[in-house]
Amino acid sequence: MLTASAYAATSADAPLQKTAVRRRDLGPLDVLIEIKYAGICHSDIHTARNEWGGTHYPVVPGHEIAGIVAAVGGEVTRHDVGDRVGVGCFVDSCGTCEACVSGDEQYCVARVVQTYNSRTADGEYTMGGYSSHIVVTEAFVLSVPDGLALDVAAPLLCAGITLYSPLRHWGAGPGKRVAIIGMGGLGHVGVKIAHALGAEVTVLSQTLSKQEDGLKFGASHYYATSDPATFKELRSRFDLILNTVSVNLDMDAYMSLLAINGALVELGLPEQPIEVRGFSLASNRRSLAGSMVGGIAETQEMLDFCAEHGIVAEIEVIAADEINDAFDRVVRSDVRYRFVIDAGTF
């Protein structure tokens, strides 16, 4: 087995510390990846601090992984040594259920295996991308197009596909009015993708502090939700609203912004249950939905789309020993817009 350098949390209130993890021996269909960059997702923080419950310690977070293939198993056909590759939020699934067969492995009804904090078939727990190396079955390894640098590509493996999948599913494109709630690590990528798809994009943010960025990234309009006039002016305006924030909002107020047959899709995952009045749904035949990441084929489609349209995450690269400070800064919304760890510092 390979021993890889990593950063792990050992309890909910412990800072992440440098450690070593054992990666499994290379099987015939496995790919060994030398990680170059790993993005920091808010999900990493929720899990490391057990804010969602169910964290198994020690845990090595990280599901925005970009690197270089270092070795391949004897039956691997999709990837070669030296290839530029990525790994997202999950690394295995049953492969036979309806979701897997249809290309929605993320919704596998049997045993989707998350990239970290997820139990595998042999009873071990997965350790994620805050590490120097990782071994992943070839079917769950993505190809990073040459047009994308690895550091800015890493956050696309979660943030990018988290926005791309619902935008595609709900038909964002020319003639569609799309609103993005939040201009953070998820939201800023969503603005870029929705604009590239041809939709008219509006940002709904608590303040106007990031308005200049939002307009630069492709938004046509930018509103402060702290201003009550916003909800009056935008009533029944949008075909699709994507909520990227992880706090509980006044859902009835946001539902009122949907046009006939409009949908509000939850992408952020607040700790408390979401409350909405039935009348808010019945009016205009509105829908409240949710979405996770996309399947492997759709994630590859997203990477190719981003390369074609020059879409990248706005990042701040940090060293591994800055992870704990970066966690605190993410919670304070003190980053524009995504931290990426230089895996060479593990």
TrEMBL record:
User: Origin, by domain of life?
Assistant: Bacteria
Q: Name one GO molecular function term.
A: oxidoreductase activity
Q: State whether keyword Transcription regulation applies.
A: no
The reaction(s) this protein catalyses: a primary alcohol + NADP(+) = an aldehyde + NADPH + H(+)
Coiled coil (residue ranges): none
> Which keywords label this protein?
Metal-binding, Oxidoreductase, Zinc
**PROSITE patterns, sorted:** ADH_ZINC
Q: Report the EC code(s) recorded for this entry.
A: 1.1.1.2
Alphabetical list of Pfam families matching this protein: ADH_N, ADH_zinc_N
Q: Which cofactor does it need?
A: Zn(2+)
Stretches assigned to the Enoyl reductase (ER) domain: 9-341
PANTHER family, alphabetized: ALDEHYDE REDUCTASE
The family note in this entry says: Belongs to the zinc-containing alcohol dehydrogenase family.
Q: Under which name does UniProt file this protein?
A: alcohol dehydrogenase (NADP(+))
Lineage of origin: Bacteria, Bacillati, Actinomycetota, Actinomycetes, Mycobacteriales
